[in-house]
Amino acid sequence: MSRGLGDVYKRQCLYRRVALDTIGLDNEALLGTDVLHGIKFNLDNKHQKRNRDFNALLYFLKNRMNERTIRQELFFNGIIEKQELDEYTSLALHSYRQVINWLKKKATNEIQIRAGI
Questions:
Q1: Which residues contact 79 (CB under 8 A, 6 or more apart)?
Q2: Which of 110, 99, 111 is nearest to 65 (CA)?
Q3: 18: burial class by Cβ within 10 Å (0-12, 13-18, 19+)?
Q4: Closest-CA residue to 75 (of 52, 92, 60)
């Protein structure tokens, strides 16, 4: 298994994977672990460290991906100027839409259901 670029256990690596897919360069056979169809992930096992970020992302997409929630979380984390808050909220929503598109394209039905798709 590859590390670094291909390490999709961490959330930032999941986003990198989505970005690669957006430009047509995602290749799970060459880049890291395939979290969507791999055998190393048991999404039902809450104690398995390697899938915690992925499960958290799926939960967020299904239950908390809306402008109000994102804006509130950014505000509570110190982004208080209106223009900056608007820009970060827009960026976050755009990023999450890209993740949803990636999941629609590549994920199993079970994963899509977990993401609320």
A1: 85, 88
A2: 99
A3: buried
A4: 92
Distance (Å, whole) CA 68 – CA 108: 29
Provide the CB-side half-sphere exposure for 47 (13 A, CA). 0
Enter the tokens of residue 5: 């670029």
What token pair was written down for 91?
């960026």
| Spatial distance between the Cα atoms of 82 and 109, rounded to a whole number of angstroms | 38
Could you give the angle at the alpha carbon of 107 between the alpha carbons of 105 and 110, nearest 5°?
135
pTM of the predicted structure, to 2 decimals: 0.79
pLDDT tens-digit profile of 56-72? 889 999 998 899 999 99
